[in-house]
Design a protein that fits this description.
Layout: E1 4-5, H1 25-46, H2 54-67, E2 75-79, H3 87-91, E3 95-100, H4 103-109, E4 115-118, E5 131-137, H5 147-157, E6 159-170, H6 175-186, H7 200-209, E7 212-220, H8 236-243, E8 258-265
Parallel strand pairs: 1-4, 2-3, 2-5, 3-4, 5-6
Antiparallel strand pairs: 6-8, 7-8
Length: 271
């Protein structure tokens, strides 16, 4: 499906930017180490066969709700797209972009979106105010403070004044996630590298520091998983039906596996 990849993007396009950003030396060193470590981790993840996890089903349903509010022909980008599975939802009626630093991931993503971009989310090759909707899940938690805020600021830079940003991260208050991760780390089979979790307050604070306004905080996936990226106990159809009961749970941001925010620009960063 992909019409272009990073090194084939037309530099005359209005959304493309060849600018250079300069950071303090110490910050660059920290960023370089983090990116190199992350590249190695995610190349391993995306080169193996994957199963549609329970969380992926919840995530896709939530994005359908977002899509219903977008005007046809909107510019949509997943910043840290992995396989770009969810971009296929938007690609039928929007101009879609997937950006990732893993070539293996982009081999999958190019089947799901119109443009794939090999780059990192701290310096994305797009002009200010380009996209109507920017989103990611499972990205920000892999960077320490203040790099997490820097990534959000970069997404804010390329977001249109009327656009929306969606960021989803693991939830500090999800007991079964915390226990499961602790066991995986102890058994030395946790495959996702460095990862932090966020409380609703911490996530809101990161969004605030990036100069954005939080419009909504929510939670996704209350029930323990019946399938991960590696194993599944039941079929996708059965798991999707079972997951429908979660709509009856209130205030999920305080106990679900993932918490997310929908944010928009403030008057101070519209330019």
């Amino acid at each position: 499906m992909a019409d272009s990849i990073f090194f084939a993007l037309n530099e005359n396009e209005s959304f493309f930017d060849t600018r250079h950003i300069y950071f303090p030396v110490q910050y660059v060193k920290q960023l370089s180490v983090a990116i190199c470590m992350a590249e190695d981790v995610w190349e391993k993840v995306w080169t193996k066969s994957l199963i549609t996890s329970d969380y992926s089903l919840k995530y896709l349903d939530f994005l359908k709700y977002i899509d219903s509010d977008l005007k046809s022909g909107s510019k949509v980008i997943e910043a840290g797209c992995g396989t770009g599975q969810t971009l296929a939802l938007f690609s039928t009626h929007h101009e879609t972009f997937g950006i990732d630093m893993s070539p293996a991931a982009l081999q999958h993503a190019k089947k799901n979106c119109r443009h794939v971009v090999l780059a990192n989310i701290f310096d994305m090759p797009f002009q200010n105010n380009t996209f109507d909707f920017i989103y990611n899940s499972g990205v920000i938690e892999h960077f320490k403070d203040p790099m997490n805020v820097s990534a959000i600021k970069e997404m804010a830079r390329i977001l249109k004044p009327t656009g929306r940003l969606l960021v989803i991260v693991p939830n500090t208050y999800c007991l079964w996630y915390k226990v499961g991760k602790w066991v995986s780390v102890m058994m030395k089979n946790f495959e996702f590298g460095y990862e932090e979790d966020y409380s609703p307050t911490r996530l809101k604070n990161a969004i605030d520091r990036a100069g954005l306004i939080v419009e909504e905080i929510f939670g996704l996936q209350v029930l323990p998983p019946l399938a991960t990226n590696d194993k599944e106990l039941f079929s996708v159809t059965l798991r999707w039906r079972l997951g429908k009961i979660e709509k009856f749970f209130p205030a999920k941001q305080y106990y679900a596996y993932a918490i997310g925010v929908i944010a928009s620009k403030t008057t101070s960063n519209l330019n």
